[in-house]
Design goal:
six-stranded mixed beta sheet; five-stranded mixed beta sheet; alpha+beta; 16 helices; binds adenosine monophosphate
């Protein structure tokens, strides 16, 4: 077996790390850098470039240079079409409407999985060159708000790259692990992640090795690039004032300005002023023009003050969603290269009243956490159990539109639960399994993750077939649901991937809605249970009458049949008090029938008054409409 690495597959940059001699180590790329730009490009002859070589030629080959592919993972083209204006390559719909990157040099589109796999493959190759052995397994990180489709897409990317993905873990969880925060008991951690193009804030609870993401917020279009652009704008403006030339019209000049601006920004993280010197930036009437300007940290902070304002909103949102005060945060972790800016550190300190943890390199902290997780799985790192939890409850729709929960919210994963269901009508040939996620008792109010049919149920009276439904969530949070008819062994299953999943806003919304509607939901649930109970009683009494034959006199039979009818009528009209009274009346009648049958000392008939196998049946599935 080869080595297992930890990979931070980022929007702008990716990093690979490994456990060596019990310590996490970041592996440098073949080009000698500790981070690898998440960029893939194709030359006109089809040759593939990945990482810094791809990034370097992006200006001269914009159509064939794919970057920020992580934004499109697990999305349809429809969902992300508004992003087209922000990127230089063309998005196209692939299989099932999936968002893909069109590559003119290859005359075909590549899925986000394929592009990510190319980045992962480079990291794998570089790690193999460094370690001198095969790397065939990985732990890969994803943002906490990634839904199931995005996680599955990430896992697929790993598999395409020839890596067995042992675990997909949340980026803030990985960062917390890198700081050894798993050893803490009951702490609340704020992870502040400002990278090249995205900003994420997460609040996590940690205790006894379990990390739970309490809230997450962010701005998917705020990062270091925006700070660079502010400097570019300023340089262009100053140059125009000075020389009367608009550099924005010169594509090559803009690229040089961008690179110089990023360098200037980075220098200003450690110095109070920097010089931007770009000789021969452009030419006017064949006369070369040079740019030479000095930028102070104070000026830079002034230029970027609106960006700092934008940072505040998601921060407060995450705190509010976690239902806490900023002062209650125990630890603050900084992730992403842009948190090196002194103004960012100052702001976080002000907002949390805490000195942020900065001892681990912010570009590398997520990959290091992933490597530690790889070490835990490989047995190299002991005494840590890292567990994730389900963000919302999961279950199926049962008769009467009721959501029957199999796995509760906040259950530690991996987990597996089974329950037995049955049919609602006689000779029902198939059932539909509607897999739901949410907190509301009415099936309709929850999110349907997928549906499938289990056909081939042999003819049998209602409530006799036993259908075992199993929910199995693996360590990556990927859900597999199966249904098996116990008599024949017929089985059907689905793996939940795809479009209908939840993002972090939806999770929050659904939890809030459940809280707000608690009283109404309770009434609905009680009514639904009453209707179910009534259906069962009507059915059982009918069956008893049939089975009893001659043993029941005609008057009793007539009376009971009328009472069954009234109960069924009450159920359709749906008034709770009416159903309840019709139920009680029929229940009484049914008891006296049972008594009569016992009195006739016919034990076998009396037994028929009891439902068969009811103790194992939890609920019924509707017949197909
Ligand atoms: P990441 O996505 O975490 O790799 O972060 C990349 C971003 O961090 C880029 O915008 C970099 O320019 C920025 N960055 C890296 N180092 C520094 C630094 N010392 N000061 C300011 N920004 C930095």
């Amino acid at each position: 077996m080869g080595k297992t690495v930890g990979i931070d597959l980022g929007t702008t940059n990716s990093v690979v790390a490994v456990m060596e001699g019990g310590e996490p180590v970041v592996i440098s790329t073949a080009e000698g850098s500790r981070t690898c730009p998440s960029v893939v490009a194709f030359k006109q002859n089809g040759e593939r470039l990945v990482g810094v070589t791809a990034k370097r030629q992006s200006v001269v080959n914009p159509d064939n240079t794919i970057y920020s592919i992580k934004r499109f993972m697990g999305h349809t083209l429809n969902e992300v079409s508004s992003e087209q204006g922000r990127i230089s390559y063309k998005l196209k719909a692939g299989k099932n409407g999936q968002a893909c990157a069109f590559v003119p040099a290859l005359d075909k589109e590549l899925s986000p999985e394929e592009v990510s796999a190319m980045i992962l493959q480079k990291l794998k190759n570089d790690a193999e060159a460094y370690l001198g052995e095969t790397v065939d397994q990985a732990v890969i990180t994803v943002p906490a708000y990634f839904n199931d489709a995005q996680r599955t897409a990430t896992k697929n990317a790993g598999e395409i790259a020839g890596l067995k993905v042992l675990r997909i873990i949340n980026e803030p969880t990985a960062a917390s692990l890198a700081y050894g925060l798993d050893k803490k008991s009951n702490e609340t951690i704020l992870v502040f992640d400002l990278g090249g193009g995205t900003f994420d804030v997460s609040v996590l609870d940690v205790g006894e090795g379990v990390f739970e993401v309490r809230s997450t917020s962010g701005d998917s279009h705020l990062g270091g690039d925006d700070f660079d652009n502010k400097i570019v704008d300023w340089l262009v403006q100053e140059f125009k004032k000075d020389q009367g030339v608009d550099l924005l019209k010169d594509r090559a000049a803009v690229q040089r300005l961008r690179e110089a601006s990023e360098r200037a920004k980075i220098e200003l993280s450690s110095q109070m002023s920097t010089q931007v010197n770009l000789p021969y930036i452009t030419a006017v009437d064949n006369e070369p023009k040079h740019l030479d300007l000095s930028l102070t940290r104070a000026k830079f902070e002034e230029l970027t003050s609106d960006l700092m304002e934008r940072v505040k909103k998601p921060f407060f949102q995450a705190i509010e969603d976690a239902k806490m005060q900023a002062g209650e945060i125990d630890e603050v972790i900084m992730v992403g290269g842009s948190t090196r800016m002194p103004q960012v550190q100052e702001l976080v300190k002000q907002l949390t009243n805490k000195e942020p943890n900065r001892s681990v390199n912010p570009d590398e902290v997520v990959a290091i956490g992933a490597a530690i997780q790889a070490g835990i799985l490989g047995g190299e790192v002991k005494n840590i159990v890292l567990l994730d939890v389900t963000p919302l409850s999961l279950g199926v729709e049962t008769q009467g539109g009721i959501f029957d929960k199999l796995i509760d919210r906040n259950t530690t994963i991996p987990t597996k639960k089974s329950r037995i269901y049955t049919t609602a009508s006689d000779n029902q040939p198939e059932v539909e399994i509607n897999v739901l996620q949410g907190e509301r008792p009415k099936a309709h109010d929850n999110k349907s993750l997928g549906r499938f049919h289990l056909a081939g149920i042999p003819p049998a009276p209602a409530r006799v077939p036993q259908i075992e439904v199993t929910f199995d969530i693996d360590a990556n949070g990927i859900l597999n649901v199966s249904a098996q008819e116990k008599g024949t062994g017929t089985k059907q299953s689905i793996t939940i991937t795809g479009s209908g999943n939840l993002n972090r806003d939806e999770i929050e919304r659904m939890v809030k809605e459940a809280e707000m509607n608690a009283e109404l939901d309770k009434q609905f649930q009680e009514l639904a249970e009453l209707k179910n109970k009534s259906d069962q009683l009507a059915y059982q009494t009918e069956k008893t009458l049939k089975d009893a034959g001659e043993k029941i006199d005609e008057a009793t039979r007539q009376d009971a049949t009328e009472k069954i009818e009234s109960l069924r009528k009450a159920v359709t009209t749906g008034e709770a008090s009416e159903i309840q009274s019709a139920f009680s009346i029929l229940e009484q009648a049914s008891h006296s029938i049972a008594e009569k049958l016992y009195a006739a000392n016919d034990a076998e008939s009396a037994k028929a008054a009891q439902p068969e196998g009811e103790e194992v049946i939890d609920a019924e599935f509707n017949e197909e409409k």
